[in-house]
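Action item from last week, closing it out:
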Amino acid sequence: MKKRNRYIVSLLIAIALLIFLDVMAYYTTQRYATLLATASHENTPPKKIVADFQDAPPHVSLLFLESYDPKRIKYIFSPPKPPEPVYTGYCLTVPVLMYHHVQPQAQAVEKKQTTVSMDSGVFDQHMAYLASRGYNTITVKQLVDALRTKTALPPKSIAITLDDGYRDAYEYAYQSFKRYNITANLMIPTGLLEGADYLTWGQLIEMKGSGLIYVSDHTWSHYGVGGTNAEKIKYEIMLGKSQLEGRLGQPQEIFTYPYGTFGNTAIEILKQNGFSGAFSTLPGTVQCDSFIMSLHRTRIGNSPLSAYGL
């Protein structure tokens, strides 16, 4: 009899504990259900909604909701959402669009270059879009100078950049620049010029002479300058700088990091040798003098520019 009573008591305690946990879970998630439901159109709840909550348990950063029944909310474990960037100093909102190859898609497939290639027809549509909507295309130097002098730029300023000096920049992109009177920026690794699939010096000089093209140092051999080998980094930066200045007669004050990699060694070398700004591949459209040696760019694909908030 005593054993039976102990069993019943234990069973009742277990049931009570389960009920308690269920009630706690219900009231914990009920607060989230209403908030999550507002993210959906009335009477048309999505199958799953994901949202962040600052007051969620510390080990949980996301919640899944499969219906409006709060009991069906499921916790999932996920790294916390990174905080919104805090910008300091003098800042301007200027998108800097980043392209590499510009060529017909069939040609990109044939050359196995699709991962870094923009279809030339779509690229032409991009340039037409910018021209028709009143964007002011500027050089990267104009952006850096505006940040350093804390002056405004024309409304709807935007910078177009093409990395690596591929020959299709002349064959396709340059034709669109001329068609729509677009100012653009070419990031040139000088040691690759005259090679297969790369620009010739003659083509680069012609484009620079049009008044539409600003040329930026991108090292000599497209060397990643994110390491600490100061001698090699300086050699790459300075050889590219001297060759561009010698051939184009344009002072080199703006640098673009190959592969987007950079570090303190490269930044110090740039500052010591007359560079006033540099561009990374970090995403973003806000540009500030507080990170003028690692300004942001937006990688562009074959989607319409409206998909990038333009």
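Closing note: The radius of gyration is 28 Å.
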